[in-house]
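DM from R.C. (forwarded with permission)

"hey, sorry to bug you on a friday — could you get me a structure for this? deadline for the figure draft is monday and I only need the backbone to look sensible"
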Amino acid sequence: MTALRRRTDPDRVVSPVRSTPAAAAWARHAGAVVLPPVVFGVAFIALWQLFVRAADVKPYVLAAPSDIWSAFTEHHGRIIDATIDTGKNALVGLIIGAVIGVLLAALAARFSWFNGMATPLVSALAAVPIVCLAPLFNHMYSLLSSTPRRDVVAIAAFVPIFINTVRGLSQLAPVHRELMESYAASGTAVLIRIRIPNALPHFFTGLRVAASVAVITAVVAEYFGGVKKGLGSRITDNIGSTDYPQAWASILGAVVLGLIFFVVTLTVERLVLGRRAAALA
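My reply, with the result:
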């Protein structure tokens, strides 16, 4: 009866829900991760502004952040459209490079003869200035096509994804090897059940690198002619017309685009790997 009264007593005050230790720890971790770069970024921009004004630096040398922001707000519509166009080229090229890189990495891990043939070629490809291929590809396709830029991005993104994925697929612990041999598992079964899960962290490492490289390559590839819609074309046009604050505003759009690619890639990695991603971070 006493227990029943305690449960049904209307005068009993129910304490509000308190934050759990896990939530508090997560909040502290988020603050420790987000706050330092924000403080550093604000301080850096403030010092940049003070230096340009105090030293009377000319805009063609270095534009002030206030002038860059004014140019961005004045031409934000065009800059956003150019950012979207460059982002499409970077995304399509990144997807193509990732798919081809993973497929060839799986073949290289499955067949030693293919690994011996493909790895030196990819290493040689990594030494090629990929952006130099942009003008050559522009002559292979129509001047109104975005295919040359996407091809260049795909090649640039393919290299880090292939190299990191092959490394992850090739690392097979002896205990796992003995276990699969005891079950008389085929090479394909070992690839699917052991090698691929072990290779996921390496794949996402390559994907993070490839995401940044894709944005950089997409912007620089637009310097070499073709459709004048992207950020690279706007930067070259602004510099040609000596509108340096607007050129820096377009660079700001490229920075934001690179951050978006990085954050999306990191989010996908956390969703796929879960706690493993947090442990590896």
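R.C.: lifesaver. Residues 21-55 form the longest helix (35 residues).
me: no worries. The chain has two domains: 30-62, 67-280.
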